[in-house]
Amino acid sequence: MNTRLWRMLPAFLLLALFFPASAPAVHFHDSWLDRPLQTSANSFLGILDQPQVNDASPTSFKQLPSPQKPNLGLRYDLKWDLPVTLGGLALWFTLEVTDSLAPANCRWCDSDAQGNNSLNGLDNSLRNSLLWDNPKRAQSFSDLLFLGIAPLTAFGLNAAAAAHDGSFDLNRQWMVESMIILEAAAMTANFTRLLKFAFARERPAVHFGTQDGLNVPDASRNTSFFSGHASMTFSLAAAGGTIASMRGYRWAPLVWAGGMTIAATTGYLRIAGDRHYFTDVLAGAIVGSAVGFAVPYFFHRPRKKTPGNRFSKALPFDGDASLQLPQGASPQKLTIDLFPLQGGGYVGFRWRR
Hints:
Elements: H1 2-7, H2 9-18, E1 36-37, H3 41-45, E2 52-53, H4 78-97, H5 121-130, H6 135-164, H7 170-199, H8 204-207, H9 228-247, H10 252-272, H11 278-300, E3 310-316, E4 324-325, E5 335-341, E6 344-352
Parallel strand pairs: 2-4
Antiparallel strand pairs: 1-5, 3-6, 5-6
Helix pairs in contact: 2-7, 4-7, 6-7, 6-9, 6-10, 7-9, 7-11, 9-10, 9-11, 10-11
């Protein structure tokens, strides 16, 4: 039970960051497309008192030296995303510590009716090739990657990529990205745990009756398929990489490469530690990557700019600009958005006919 509680440590540490004693509540979208400035726009910009209509040019602005292009903000709603994340973590904790839910006997035993070994050739061959002489050491290394390095890589590389682009914001951007990564990880953990119970595959060390297999806890003896270490580390890597790509970070390839390298190494060590077969790790990698990509992409990707008869443009702004609207565009249908940026700012104009 203590080992399973240690697996929850990264989640507990990250949750503590979401509730600092003096942190303000978050009630905004962090994209210039979602932050309309209404009543104070005229006085702040001083450019809309006499809007000009020009039939030829949809927009014309004074071109200024450009700071780093802003990244589009991710969609999120704390009223939904936070309960989903917290509920997922609570369910994961329940499944981890409730031994009575674990299968007492294997349903996928890799043995024939006479009890002879019937393990498929691929898993058998790779186990023989990759198994370490000291499996406990490989298990310890895999736990280190799973509990510490993989979460730090997912959360840390995204922060580094944002900082490299000059747009790092601890109280806004990083916490939102971390919540989304954690949301994907919680969904992956629960999906993995439930399928482990359903398949009830006997672990390799137990199947082959090794000395190490005798030390496997009863609740873990028949939960080989699929690898939770692999699914979780690949989920963290895919979620972090997907967010970095959607944000447009220039270091997005580094986020992907770092996360996937850690995840692949973790999967290898689970085979070397005789805790999983290759097919367990492969399935975990596929499921973890799929969930890690799907959660940010389908639920949190930036909104499309504007369809059909809607128009938008973002340009650097220093307080001196002129606006020309296309034919048929109404000043009453103009929205001005501001995207604050360190070292400069962008002003966004949207209009419709």
